[in-house]
Specification:
It comes from Glaesserella parasuis ZJ0906. Keywords: Methyltransferase, Transferase. Belongs to the N(4)/N(6)-methyltransferase family. The chain is of the alpha+beta class. The chain folds into two domains: 31 residues, no CATH class; 123 residues, 3-Layer(aba) Sandwich (Rossmann fold). Helix content is 35%, strand content 20%. The protein has four helices and four strands; from the N terminus they run ααβαβαββ. It has a four-stranded mixed sheet. Helix 3 runs parallel beside helix 4. The longest helix has 18 residues. The protein is globular and about 65 Å long.
């Protein structure tokens, strides 16, 4: 339930009333809304959701710089790698034993993300790279290639367990 448009007093009273009438309030909700930096959010989720998540999709910064995003998107490659590595460690601990992770990325850091993911999940748990069409634009005279796609890198936590999409 999104209570963000209500006053803090009303929010507190509503949650208190619902908790009293429903008993275990958490068992009656089917989602969690977190407004946070992803690193803090992943840490917050650890206590409740460790090894319970079936599927994670992330869309990290592509590290291209100057894309007009409100977040930083122009790290040194090593800094970007550390940022991603730290978050993937937390994400992996949320996955159950047959869980899967899908990560969007473009050509700029695709190979780097694959190496980081292989090191954390194991090469044996790599499922594949899915090309995703992002534009049907044709290259101009001065372009050699048109960038019309990005990728989704997929891994599972344990490939030996049944994996059904």
């Amino acid at each position: 339930m999104d209570t963000s448009l209500f006053s803090a007093t009303f929010q507190s009273a509503l949650i208190s009333t619902l908790s009293r009438s429903l008993g275990d309030f958490d068992s009656h909700i089917n989602g969690t809304l977190i407004h946070s930096d992803n690193f803090q959010a992943l840490n917050l989720l650890q206590a409740r959701y460790r090894e319970q998540v079936k599927c994670i999709y992330i869309d990290p910064p592509y590290n291209t710089g100057g894309d007009g995003f409100i977040y930083k998107d122009g790290y040194q490659s090593a800094s970007w790698g550390t940022l991603i590595h730290n978050r993937l460690i937390l994400a992996k601990s949320l996955l159950n034993q047959s869980g899967a992770i899908f990560q969007s990325i473009d050509d700029n850091e695709q190979a780097h993300l694959k190496l980081i993911s292989d090191s954390l999940f194991g090469k044996e748990n790599f499922i594949g790279v899915i090309p995703r069409l992002t534009s049907a634009q044709r290259p101009s005279q001065e372009d050699y290639f048109s960038i019309t796609h990005d990728y989704i890198i997929s891994h599972v936590k344990n490939k030996n367990l049944i994996f059904i999409m």
